[in-house]
């Protein structure tokens, strides 16, 4: 699908009009300028299809002027265009007379123009009919620049979705860093990949233990984007869980609604790598580092077992109580490694616990942080701005007592109660810097579609990989990156 910007509306392509409910005069003037009668597209109706000789199209009158409503309007209009069978469409927003952040609104249009009709069709035999070209009307100046930026971010989200949707025999722990290296070459940022020998030399016992049952080696990827005039003196480090497939190991998962979508367990790694790539492509003035430990977790003949004692790379002995609590082990080695950079902030992103998904469902990710109100409020605010919302959970000391071990420093599982929190406390044990943990287990992958909307949509997420976290982190970095150090 091609999505691009235009300065003129063509009379021979269907036009999708998105109309602000407060743009009464603008609506009349713009339609008349294009030879259309305002009576043909009344503002009293939410959705109107029209055909006027050569011209045809539809109008969506938005319920309000919120940016999130505008995003849903883009999704709604494009989905309706697909239903009708239009192959080439053009999209124009009739904007309100007063708008607090016009650039961000246009950026959001660009994002959703790319994201709305996403499907993973790489292995599909029968083509799925859809819109093939989308021309977005771009006013000159700030709006055009914002739209261009939105198109880039939308493509990054879709690329992240592609990575997560790839089957595990394709997106292996070896293939994942190869994808990251390709991005580094394209957008000119540094990528270093450690093989198993280097991981052993670094004594990354968490990553090595999880990998013991696999026939493929683990990898550890460091992606660094350092512009010449970065605004942050200390780097922002993003850590992403790269568990390319999780069987649960010897603590084997059930297949239905569990193991059958565990290819998505590397979503955090895909997110942080693509955020760094997006920053490089957009030329953002922030020094960023992404760390992605990668392996699969399988019950092979040498698999690690409950009751094992393993050592994380800082020498911490960990008692294994459940081999399905593996993500925190590979993240622990990455969090220890992050200490080397004296970071302004470390944010880890992981599909870490089913408990987080059970707590807040598919509508929010879980946030844990020790970094104080600036980071906490900034992440929560960016979550609401992008509608990749976060709910903060506590890191009270009492939860730390639950992961204490009788025979080691800590244990990797404390049972079901407070499971998302005790997993975060496990990670916190290895943290020596300002830190935030995003548990995206409930939001990274929708194995079941969200309920169908009647009328104007309540969401714009697609089935399977969502790419959640990309827009959130980019928004947070841009708005708070130079305030962290």
Q: What tags apply to this protein structure?
A:
six-stranded mixed beta sheet; 485 residues; elongated; Aminopeptidase; alpha/beta; 2 domains; nine-stranded mixed beta sheet; Leucine Aminopeptidase, subunit E, domain 1; 14 helices
Report on this structure.
The chain is of the alpha/beta class and 485 residues long. The chain folds into two domains: 2-155, Leucine Aminopeptidase, subunit E, domain 1 (3-Layer(aba) Sandwich), CATH 3.40.220.10; 166-483, Zn peptidases (Aminopeptidase, 3-Layer(aba) Sandwich), CATH 3.40.630. It is 34% helix and 20% strand. The strands form four sheets. Strands 7, 8, 9, 10, 11, 14, 15, 16 and 18 form a nine-stranded mixed beta sheet that branches. 52% of the residues are buried.
List the helices and strands and how they pair.
Layout: E1 2-6, E2 15-19, H1 24-33, E3 47-52, E4 55-61, H2 67-84, E5 88-94, H3 102-115, E6 133-137, H4 142-165, H5 175-187, E7 190-194, H6 196-201, H7 205-211, E8 219-225, E9 236-240, E10 242-246, H8 267-282, E11 288-297, E12 309-311, E13 317-319, H9 327-338, E14 345-350, H10 354-360, E15 365-369, H11 373-386, E16 390-392, H12 397-401, E17 410-411, H13 419-428, E18 435-439, E19 445-446, E20 464-465, H14 470-480
Parallel strand pairs: 1-6, 2-4, 2-5, 5-6, 9-11, 9-14, 10-11, 13-17, 14-18, 15-16
Antiparallel strand pairs: 3-4, 7-8, 8-11, 12-13, 15-18, 19-20
């Amino acid at each position: 699908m091609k999505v691009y910007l235009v300065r003129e509306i063509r009379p021979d392509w269907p036009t999708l009009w998105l109309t602000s409910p407060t743009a009464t005069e603008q609506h009349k003037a713009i339609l008349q300028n294009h030879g259309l009668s305002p009576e043909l597209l009344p503002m009293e109706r939410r959705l109107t299809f029209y055909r006027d000789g050569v011209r045809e199209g539809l109008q969506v009158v938005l319920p309000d002027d919120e940016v999130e409503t505008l995003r849903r309007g883009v999704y709604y209009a494009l989905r309706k265009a697909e239903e009708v069978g239009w192959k080439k469409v053009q999209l124009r927003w009739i904007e309100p007379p007063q708008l607090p952040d016009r650039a961000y609104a246009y950026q959001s249009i660009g994002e959703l123009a790319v994201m709305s009709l996403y499907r993973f069709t790489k292995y599909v035999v029968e083509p799925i009919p859809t819109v093939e070209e989308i021309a977005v009307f771009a006013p000159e100046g700030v709006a055009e620049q914002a739209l261009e930026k939105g198109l880039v971010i939308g493509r990054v989200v879709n690329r992240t979705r592609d990575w997560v949707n790839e089957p595990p025999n394709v997106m292996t722990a070896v293939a994942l860093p190869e994808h990251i290296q390709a991005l580094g070459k394209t957008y000119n940022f540094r990528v270093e990949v450690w093989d198993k020998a280097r991981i052993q030399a670094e004594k990354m016992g968490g990553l090595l233990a999880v990998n013991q049952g696999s026939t493929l080696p683990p990898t550890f990827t460091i992606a660094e984007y350092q512009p010449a005039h970065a605004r942050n003196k200390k780097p922002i480090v993003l850590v992403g869980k790269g568990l390319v497939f999780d069987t649960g190991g010897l603590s084997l998962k059930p297949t239905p609604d569990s193991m059958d979508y565990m290819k998505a367990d590397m979503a955090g790694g895909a997110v942080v790598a693509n955020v760094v790539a997006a920053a490089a492509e957009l030329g953002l003035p922030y020094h960023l580092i992404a760390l992605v430990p990668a392996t699969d977790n399988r019950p092979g003949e040498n698999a690690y077992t409950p009751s094992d004692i393993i050592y994380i790379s800082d020498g911490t002995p960990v008692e294994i109580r459940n081999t399905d609590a593996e993500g925190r082990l590979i993240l622990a080695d990455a969090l220890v490694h992050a200490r080397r950079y004296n970071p302004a902030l470390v944010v880890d992103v992981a599909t870490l616990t089913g408990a987080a998904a059970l707590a807040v469902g598919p509508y929010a990710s879980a946030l844990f942080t020790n970094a104080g109100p600036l980071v906490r409020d900034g992440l929560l605010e960016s979550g609401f701005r992008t509608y990749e919302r976060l709910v903060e959970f506590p890191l009270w000391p009492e939860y730390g007592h639950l992961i204490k071990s009788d025979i080691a420093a800590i244990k990797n599982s404390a049972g079901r109660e407070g499971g998302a929190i005790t997993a975060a406390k496990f990670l916190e044990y290895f943290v020596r810097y300002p830190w935030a943990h995003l548990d995206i287990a409930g939001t990274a992958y929708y194995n079941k579609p969200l309920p169908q909307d009647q009328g104007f949509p309540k969401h714009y997420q697609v089935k399977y990989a969502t790419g959640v976290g990309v827009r959130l982190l980019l928004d947070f970095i841009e708005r708070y990156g130079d305030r962290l150090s």
